[in-house]
Each structure stands twice: as C-alpha cells, then as structure tokens.
Design brief:
globular, 4 strands, 116 residues, alpha/beta
Length: 116
Amino acid sequence: MTNVLFVCSANRLRSPTAEQVFSTWPGIETDSAGISNDADVLLSTEQIEWADIIFVMEKAHRNKLNRKFRSSLNNKRVICLDIPDDYEFMDPVLVRILENRAGRYLRQAEPPLSKP
C-alpha cells in the first residue's frame, strides 16, 4: 500500500479533489491537508510521517512545507504538480490534470474501471 498525501493552501478544492480521485486506485491510500493557517484540515506532522509520497500543488507549498516541517521530511518524496488555484472541487479539468501529473508517479497507471 502506498500512502499518498496531497497538499494545497486551504484544503478546500485541489487537494480534496486529488484525495477523492486517487482514493479508488488499488494499492493507494490517500489523505489531504492545507498548509495555510486557515485550512479546513491543517497539515500535521503525523500526516507527513504517514505519507510515502507528498504532492504539493504549487512551488510555494513546497517552500512552506520545507520551512515548517523540515525535520519530518527526511527521506520523503515531495513532488510539485504546478496546479494553480483556478479550479472548483471535482472540476473535470482539474481531475484530468491530476490524473496526468500525479498518476505518472503512482504505481497504478490507470484508475479502476467504473462499474456500470
């Protein structure tokens, strides 16, 4: 099982979308959080320690992550997806971007087939 953490600013749009999209992929456990103080779910040390891979949406998130959690990031893979805060929750365009950019780093190449 691969533990995947998605991080954005407020944990309202991008990272919860990513958490939901990849939660159905076999072999993947997902979680999400925000790095800003007003985030719906504020990023914790426990989440970072749990994660095998951390995806951030913007370079600014990676910088803040490095400043606030440097001691917890040893041997953690942090990948910036370069996705601006231009999308609503579960926006189909955002879902496609996430599948293309994050999906290539995850073992599962394709999401599971939907049941009719």
